[in-house]
Amino acid sequence: MANGLTIRSSIEGLENTPGGLDALRDAYSKMQQISDNRGWLYWSGIHGFPQYMCWHHGRVGMGDAVPYNLFLPWHRAYLLYFEHTARDQNNAVALPWWDWTSPNSHQVGIPKSYSDAQAGGGNNPLAAGPMPAMPPDGPRSTTRNPDDPGNLPTPDDVNGLMSLGNFVDFTTQLEDLHDRIHGWVSGDMGVVATSAYDPIFWAHHCMIDRIWYLWQLQNGVNSIPADYLDKPLAPFALTVRDVLDVNRLGYDYAQTFVTVNA
């Protein structure tokens, strides 16, 4: 917390912050054991099964394709509400971002804090999350099948996005990059219906939100088509206009040793 803002750091930074990783694991573990609307199943289920409220590629293929795409603002609202829910379980929590361009990621792939099966003498709540029954299958935990770490995006991939001055072009290409990570992790992360049940989902989308934040630093907070501004971000009580400034939402992104032009 700094100047009243929740400071989101990289996973690698969180691992070096006293108590930071413990707080995140504590909050996730508690949420994964709650069966009501404060719990993991409820919040993960907003994105895919059973509610399917997420925005991807203008919701093409979801029965209501429209000529605009709320992918970035919708997921920013989703992260915000999820973070607040996690903080209800542990007030020290701030969502970390997974920098899949970092040297460490290109060596090990998914960070050890999210891949080690055990932590603190028990199951690691960052390694897998619970899933509800999805007929014909019963309840189970998420699984992954990650690709070679060398196939993860590079800083040059992200820097290329920063040269795009048009929001529509930027969000389209960033979403394509985002899709690559879901496919790279594979398993449940590779499917819209199940991806948000995997704990790495939240760190991945925090990275996407951070890239948008860096693009906004370069292009301005309001560099978005005017006809987007009053679009609702259901089921959240927010519009696109409401989520443009992360500081007004109560958070900021920490500096990191990974350099991105912005």
Remind me, CATH topology? di-copper center containing domain from catechol oxidase
* Helix fraction bin: 25-40%
Low-confidence stretches: 257-262
User: Structural class of the helix and strand makeup?
Assistant: mainly alpha
The Cα radius of gyration reads 17 Å
Name the shape in a single word. Answer: globular
CATH superfamily: Di-copper center containing domain from catechol oxidase
Query: What is the CATH architecture term?
Result: Orthogonal Bundle
Query: How many DSSP H or I helices?
Result: 9
Terminal Cα span:
23 Å
Strand content: 5-15%
Biggest sheet: strand arrangement = 1-6
Order of helices and strands: EHHHHHHEEEEHHHE
Overall mean confidence score, pLDDT:
93
Q: How would you describe this structure to a colleague?
A:
- The structure is a single chain.
- The protein has 262 residues and is mainly alpha-helical.
- Helices cover 39% and strands 5% of the residues.
- It has a single domain, classed as Di-copper center containing domain from catechol oxidase (di-copper center containing domain from catechol oxidase).
- The chain is built from 9 helices and 6 strands; from the N terminus they run βααααααββββαααβ.
- The strands form 3 sheets. A two-stranded parallel sheet has the order 1-6. Strands 2-3 form a two-stranded antiparallel ribbon.
- It is globular, with a radius of gyration of 17 Å.
